[in-house]
């Protein structure tokens, strides 16, 4: 294989910002977005959870196959919902079943990725969001999921994309939750 090493590449005077790359070749630099994968959850989810228990939110996941082990994955996630007790609800981002970007361990507390404060009343919803730059260090497919965590001190029901009452009239609302994965060149 041949190697070409140059100090500077300049474009033509008329287009000094253009560099032609041969078909089938790729020109990347650190920080470039190489691919984007996203998923949107438009249906609802609910789960009755004991205090401190978690459940995976079905339909709120996405998979990406990094092109290099040096690539990073920027994960953008936002979740709408509430809980029966009207207390806060937390979320854990997971890659392949392992938590990503969680708080420090301080037993008996649960380390989570992000959280939201449930609204007062039974017809409102909160929106919680996180952006996480993860380093999976693989070229195999990786799947990111979101778990909901009951941080209330007793059992409660948590809801995603709906309020507790979920009224059927015009005063009822349904939301959508999203997850987006971006491969960032390392």
CATH class, named Mainly Beta
Major beta sheet, specifics? 6 strands, antiparallel
Instruction: Point out poorly predicted stretches.
Output: none
**Percentage of residues assigned to helices:** under 10%
Class computed from helices, strands and strand pairing: mainly beta
Give the total of beta strands. 11
Whole-number mean pLDDT = 87
CATH topology term = Jelly Rolls
Please tally the helical runs, counting DSSP H or I stretches of 4 or more residues.
0
Number of domains: 1
Calculate Rg over CA atoms.
21 Å
- The fraction of residues assigned to DSSP E strands is 35-45%
Gross morphology is: elongated
CATH architecture: Sandwich
**Separation of the first and last Cα atoms:** 24 Å
Order of helices and strands: EEEEEEEEEEE
What would you note in describing this structure?
The protein has 186 residues and is an all-beta fold. The chain has a single domain (30-184), classed as Jelly Rolls (Sandwich), CATH 2.60.120.1340. Helices cover 0% and strands 43% of the residues. It is built from no helices and 11 strands. It has strands spanning 33-41, 45-49, 54-64, 72-83, 89-95, 98-99, 114-116, 126-134, 142-150, 156-160, 177-184. The strands form 2 sheets. Strands 1, 2, 4, 8, 10 and 11 form a 6-stranded antiparallel sheet that branches. The radius of gyration is 21 Å and the shape is elongated.
